[in-house]
Structure to design on (335 residues):
C-alpha cells in the first residue's frame, strides 16, 4: 500500500534542527538585557538650557525606554547610548591634594522624543529612564573617547582554544608526520582526499600518538575530533592481490618474539623484495624486437538485466569486457 509523504511535525524530523533561542546561555543573555522594570519617576526640577528634565513627559520616558529595550542585544543598546550621549575632553583640571586622579572627559546626556525633539537631561534622569548603571555608560563612552569605536563584546565565545593550543599542536604535528598512500581508482576526482594504509585506524593512531607523547593529556575523543574535522583523511581498502610470500613474512615477523629469528626473517623479507624489484625492472626494459601488451578484465555483465523474476533465473548470455593496450608507445590506445 502506498503512503503519501507528509511534512514532519516541528522538531520531529529525521535530523533535529539547532534552536539557539532555547539554549540556557542565550536565554540568560536575553533576560539580562531585557527591561526589568518601568522607568523611574522624575524627581529633579532642572529647567535650564543645560538640563531640561522638567520638560520631559512620562510618555517620552516610556517611548525612550521601549526603544532601548526593543532588541535585547547589548551591541545595539550600546549604539543607542552612544547616539544619545556626547563625550568632551575636560577643559580645566583643578589641582587637588587627594591621590584620586581627575576625570579625562565629561559626558552629556540627551533623550530623543517621538516629536523629534532632543531634550538634554541630567545623569540621574537618564539612568532612571533606562534602568542601567552609570558604569555601563562610562564604559561605552570611555572606549569611544579613547579609540573612536564601540567596545567589542569579550564575554562568551571559545576560551578553551588557547588553553589547549599545546595539545592541539602536538596532535597536528603527529598527523602531519604520517605518510599517505596513493588512490588507484579515483586519484583524478579526489585531489583533496588522502588515504592512510588500510591496516591503520583512529584508535591505532591514537595509541601511536600516546607512545610518542607519553606525558600528553590528550584524550581519544579530542584526538578523533581533530582527525575528523581538520583533516580530510581516510583509510584505504585492504588489497586483494598482495604477494602471498610478503604476507607470510609480515605475519611471521609480527608474531615472532625471538630477536635472532626475527632479524633473520627481516633479512629474508628484504631479499625477497629486492628480487621482486629486479624482476619488475626487467619488465620495464624496452626491446625493439618484442611488443608488450597489458590486458585487464573490466566487467562481466549477465544479460538480460531486467527486474523480471523469471528472466533472472533463465539468463543465458554473459558479456565479458576486456581491455588490451600496447605499452612503450607515444600514443597508446586501448582496445
Amino acid at each position: 500500500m502506498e503512503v503519501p509523504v507528509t511534512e514532519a511535525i516541528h522538531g520531529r524530523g529525521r535530523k533535529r534542527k539547532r534552536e539557539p533561542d532555547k539554549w540556557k546561555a542565550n536565554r540568560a543573555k536575553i533576560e539580562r538585557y531585557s527591561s526589568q522594570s518601568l522607568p523611574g519617576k522624575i524627581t529633579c526640577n532642572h529647567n535650564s538650557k543645560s538640563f531640561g528634565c522638567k520638560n520631559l513627559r512620562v510618555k517620552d520616558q516610556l517611548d525612550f525606554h521601549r526603544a532601548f529595550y526593543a532588541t535585547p542585544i547589548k551591541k545595539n543598546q550600546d549604539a543607542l547610548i552612544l547616539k544619545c550621549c556626547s563625550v568632551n575632553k575636560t577643559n580645566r583640571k583643578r589641582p587637588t591634594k587627594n591621590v584620586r586622579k581627575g576625570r579625562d572627559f565629561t559626558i552629556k546626556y540627551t533623550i530623543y522624543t517621538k516629536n523629534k525633539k532632543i531634550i538634554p537631561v541630567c545623569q540621574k534622569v537618564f539612568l532612571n529612564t533606562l534602568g542601567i548603571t552609570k558604569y555601563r555608560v562610562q564604559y561605552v563612552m570611555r572606549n569611544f573617547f579613547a579609540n573612536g569605536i564601540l567596545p567589542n563584546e569579550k564575554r562568551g565565545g571559545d576560551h578553551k582554544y588557547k588553553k589547549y593550543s599545546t595539545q592541539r599542536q602536538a596532535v597536528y604535528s603527529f598527523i602531519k608526520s604520517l605518510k599517505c598512500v596513493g588512490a588507484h581508482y579515483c586519484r583524478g576526482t579526489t585531489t583533496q582526499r588522502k588515504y592512510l594504509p588500510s591496516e591503520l585506524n583512529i584508535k591505532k593512531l591514537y595509541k601511536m600518538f600516546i607512545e610518542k607523547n607519553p606525558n600528553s593529556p590528550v584524550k581519544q575523543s579530542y584526538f578523533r575530533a581533530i582527525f575528523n574535522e581538520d583533516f580530510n583523511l581516510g583509510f584505504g581498502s585492504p588489497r586483494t592481490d598482495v604477494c602471498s610470500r610478503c604476507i607470510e613474512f609480515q605475519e611471521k615477523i609480527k608474531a615472532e618474539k625471538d630477536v635472532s629469528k626475527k632479524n633473520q626473517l627481516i633479512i629474508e623479507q628484504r631479499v625477497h623484495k629486492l628480487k621482486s624489484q629486479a624482476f619488475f625492472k626487467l619488465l620495464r626494459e624496452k626491446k625493439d624486437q618484442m611488443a608488450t601488451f597489458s590486458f585487464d578484465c573490466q566487467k562481466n555483465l549477465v544479460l538480460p538485466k531486467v527486474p523480471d523474476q523469471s528472466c533472472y533465473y533463465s539468463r543465458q548470455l554473459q558479456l565479458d569486457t576486456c581491455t588490451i593496450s600496447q605499452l612503450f608507445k607515444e600514443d597508446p590506445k586501448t582496445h
